[in-house]
Design brief:
The termini are far apart. It contains 2 helices and no strands. The protein is mainly alpha-helical and 40 residues long.
C-alpha cells in the first residue's frame, strides 16, 4: 500500500503521520523485549 493510497482512505492523516508510524514500528523491531504495563 502506498502513502497515497493510505491518504485516500484516511483523509485526516498527513504524510508525516505515516512516517511517524513507520519510525515507531522500526524502533519496536529493534527492541529485544516488550513489557506489558497494566493500568492501575
Amino acid at each position: 500500500m502506498t502513502f497515497q493510497e493510505i491518504l485516500e482512505d484516511y483523509p485526516n492523516l498527513e504524510v508525516d503521520d505515516i512516517r511517524a508510524c513507520l519510525v515507531f514500528a522500526a524502533k519496536l523491531l529493534s527492541v529485544k523485549s516488550i513489557l506489558q504495563v497494566n493500568a492501575a
